[in-house]
């Protein structure tokens, strides 16, 4: 009887150890699965955060593109209005003073017209010089440009040469009144005229 009780106790101990080992293995397996799931969850959280930040950046870019699109539309409207005004504006005609090889210097615009006290000219000249002409000439400074034009269209021949200004078609600024190139230049009807929009004669 005692032997049976001892045998039963040993069997219970062995069964307890086996059950304990099986429970530990299952607990370890569940713990590893839980760690794997936690890692996957953290990875998903990082991906969700990255996607959220990317979505936020894309929304900001879309908002910026919308603003740029509005600005571009406004610019197009302004350019269209400017083009319409340019089409409606009177035509400015320019004459090339001389056709020489390219030379360094500034492109100047000078208005040349018949002076009020000019002697009567041939009908053909009177027809072609009904209105002043604007000539484009390349020169190193303002005085050189005026001297070159005045040499061809002199006061004695009945012409009046206006003041040389840098041509606005080429993006240059007009010189100031205190241009050193004009120092000592005598004042006269052939030198003091201000540039007006040219009309063809």
Automatic annotation (TrEMBL):
Superkingdom of origin: Bacteria
* Upper taxonomic lineage: Bacteria, Pseudomonadati, Pseudomonadota, Alphaproteobacteria, Rhodospirillales
Region of interest called Disordered, as start-end residue ranges on this chain = 171-201
Source species: Azospirillum thermophilum
Q: Which residues form a coiled coil?
A: 55-89
Please state what the protein is called: Uncharacterized protein
Residue intervals passing through the bilayer: 6-23
Does the keyword section mention Membrane?
A: yes
UniProt KW keywords: Coiled coil, Membrane, Transmembrane, Transmembrane helix
């Amino acid at each position: 009887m005692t032997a049976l009780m001892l045998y039963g106790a040993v069997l219970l101990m062995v069964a307890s150890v086996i059950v304990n080992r099986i429970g530990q293995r299952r607990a370890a397996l569940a713990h590893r699965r839980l760690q794997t799931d936690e890692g996957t969850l953290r990875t998903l959280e990082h991906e969700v955060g990255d996607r959220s930040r990317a979505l936020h950046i894309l929304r900001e870019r879309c908002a910026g593109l919308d603003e740029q699109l509005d600005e571009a539309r406004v610019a197009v409207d302004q350019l269209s209005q400017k083009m319409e005004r340019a089409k409606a504006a009177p035509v400015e005609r320019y004459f090339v003073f001389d056709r020489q090889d390219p030379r360094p210097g500034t492109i100047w615009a000078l208005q040349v017209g018949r002076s009020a006290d000019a002697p009567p000219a041939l009908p053909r000249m009177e027809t072609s010089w009904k209105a002043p002409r604007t000539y484009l000439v390349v020169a190193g400074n303002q005085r050189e440009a005026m001297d070159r034009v005045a040499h061809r269209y002199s006061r004695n021949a009945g012409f009046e040469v206006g003041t040389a200004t840098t041509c606005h078609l080429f993006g240059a600024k007009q010189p100031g009144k205190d241009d050193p190139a004009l120092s000592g230049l005598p004042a006269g009807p052939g030198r003091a005229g201000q540039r007006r929009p040219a009309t063809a004669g």
